[in-house]
């Protein structure tokens, strides 16, 4: 054995353990960029990010979109900071010049999934080679787009969401009609308050109060023996209203931000969710207490209302998903995908319930399947995955459990043990909500790399054919 062999073995072992400093380039290639182009690119990318974030996209999606736009025009290594109410983008070309930094304040707007769809399509066109001036012109046109539907259509769509919930719960035709009336009254009230720029917290209180007052009136008419109100369950009316007012909350986006590490953004969204949910709860409690003071009480149901017949469950879920898509400004493509995914959600939930899984686990499984399939479909159709996923999981929002817990709190004797028992239904509802958000977020994360792999394979096959 030659004396050089041990040295070679030692050198080979060292290469396996340590990184060779000589393998790292001492310099890097600096792109040649016109100084006048940099602020234009940063302005375009920041405005695109702001519009996406304001209408419902997650912080991670916004960050990726900004970086992709900048990268397409030669600005590599941009620094992006997304918080709950602002976006900051900075680009530093070299150590010899000052960095270019832009910040835009995000003013939260109503979800507009059609506009989000067009913005995502524009980002795809930019990555495909669209020149800067054409991209800026196209974005200005998108930004000026009005909301797709007139206000009366949005109000009726919100009422139809509550109708879908009542059908999902197997309600009789008279309850379905009363649910539509109560939800329509709540939607009109909230639309009027929005025009007066009343804060959303008080808006939610008003919606919950109006829905509960209708339900208490129906209960009082039934107790008085007036037909056709005898023997019906007014709790379904309030449960449908709860789902209506919680349907617009960005649960999936908040869960995504928390998982992605955007702690400040997730904290802001979760606090916003909490305040809006508390608004609904306060409105319902005020309505119940007002009825109690006037001598009209709602009896505590023996058990939460179960789902109805399977065909009605699927029909109700599809109605809910279509209604959510419409009042979020979606086009026909998003509406059809949302309807399909809602059926997948119910199918997953039904199969999981058949094997005796806990309702929270069954809800998570249904949301996971819907979001996974949604990611597969959304990219090719330029459909926002968060839009179709949100619409698909609304049928499983635990409105019945929330109202059951609130009724238990109203009927409690005031002792600590009674309050704990009353709070069990609310905890149950919260666990289901966490399961829905977790399942939807996990489906998005599992589907994204699979979609990327399938896209790479299809591109490789296309190049092989050429």
UniProtKB/TrEMBL annotation:
Keyword Methyltransferase listed: no
Membrane topology qualifier: Multi-pass membrane protein
Domain of life: Bacteria
Main localization (coarse): membrane
Annotated InterPro entries: ThrE-like_N, ThrE_Dicarb/AminoAcid_Exp
GO molecular function, one term: transmembrane transporter activity
Transmembrane segments: 174-193, 205-226, 232-252, 273-295, 307-327, 334-354, 360-379, 386-406, 426-446
CC annotations in GO: plasma membrane
GO biological process: succinate transport
Family affiliation: Belongs to the ThrE exporter (TC 2.A.79) family.
Name used for this protein in its record: Threonine/serine exporter family protein
Organism: Microbacterium sp. A8/3-1
Source taxonomy: Bacteria, Bacillati, Actinomycetota, Actinomycetes, Micrococcales
């Amino acid at each position: 054995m030659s004396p050089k062999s041990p040295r070679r073995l030692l050198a080979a072992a060292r290469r396996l353990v340590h990184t060779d400093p000589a393998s790292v380039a001492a310099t890097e290639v600096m792109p040649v960029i016109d100084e006048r182009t940099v602020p234009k690119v940063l302005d375009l990318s920041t405005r695109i990010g702001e519009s996406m974030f304001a209408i419902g996209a997650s912080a991670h999606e916004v960050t990726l979109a900004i970086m992709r736009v900048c990268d397409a025009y030669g600005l590599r290594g941009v620094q992006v900071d997304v918080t709950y109410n602002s976006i900051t983008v900075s680009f530093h070309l070299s150590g010899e010049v000052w960095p270019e930094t832009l910040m835009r304040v995000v003013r939260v707007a109503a979800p507009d999934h059609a506009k989000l769809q067009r913005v995502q399509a524009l980002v795809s066109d930019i990555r495909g080679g669209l020149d800067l001036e054409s991209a800026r012109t196209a974005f200005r046109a998108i930004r000026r787009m009005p909301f797709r539907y007139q206000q009366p259509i949005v109000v009726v769509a919100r009422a139809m969401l509550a109708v879908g919930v009542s059908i999902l719960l197997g309600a009789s035709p008279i309850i379905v009609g009363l649910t539509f009336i109560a939800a329509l009254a709540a939607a009109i009230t909230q639309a009027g308050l929005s025009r007066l720029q009343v804060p959303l917290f008080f808006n939610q209180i008003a919606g919950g109060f109006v829905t509960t007052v209708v339900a208490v009136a129906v209960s009082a008419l039934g107790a008085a023996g007036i037909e056709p109100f005898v023997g019906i369950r007014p709790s379904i009316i309030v449960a449908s209203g709860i789902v209506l007012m919680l349907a617009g909350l960005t649960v999936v986006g908040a869960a995504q931000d928390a998982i992605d590490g955007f702690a400040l953004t997730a904290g802001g969204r979760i606090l916003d969710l909490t305040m809006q949910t508390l608004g609904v709860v306060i409105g319902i409690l005020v309505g119940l207490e007002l009825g109690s003071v006037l001598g009209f009480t709602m009896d505590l149901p023996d058990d939460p209302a179960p789902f109805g017949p399977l065909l009605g469950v699927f029909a109700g879920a599809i109605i809910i998903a279509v209604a959510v898509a419409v009042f979020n400004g979606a086009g026909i493509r998003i509406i059809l995908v949302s309807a399909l995914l809602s059926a997948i959600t119910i199918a997953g939930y039904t199969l999981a319930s058949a094997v005796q899984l806990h309702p929270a686990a069954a809800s998570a499984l249904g949301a996971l399947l819907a979001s996974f399939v949604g990611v597969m479909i959304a990219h090719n159709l330029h459909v926002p995955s968060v839009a179709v996923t949100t619409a698909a999981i609304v049928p499983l929002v635990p409105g019945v459990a929330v109202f059951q817990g609130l009724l238990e709190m109203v009927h409690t004797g005031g002792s600590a043990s009674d309050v704990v028992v009353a709070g069990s239904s609310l905890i149950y509802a919260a666990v289901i909500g966490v399961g829905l958000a977790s399942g939807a977020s996990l489906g998005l994360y599992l589907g994204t790399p699979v979609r990327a792999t399938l896209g790479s394979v299809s591109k490789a096959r296309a190049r092989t054919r050429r």
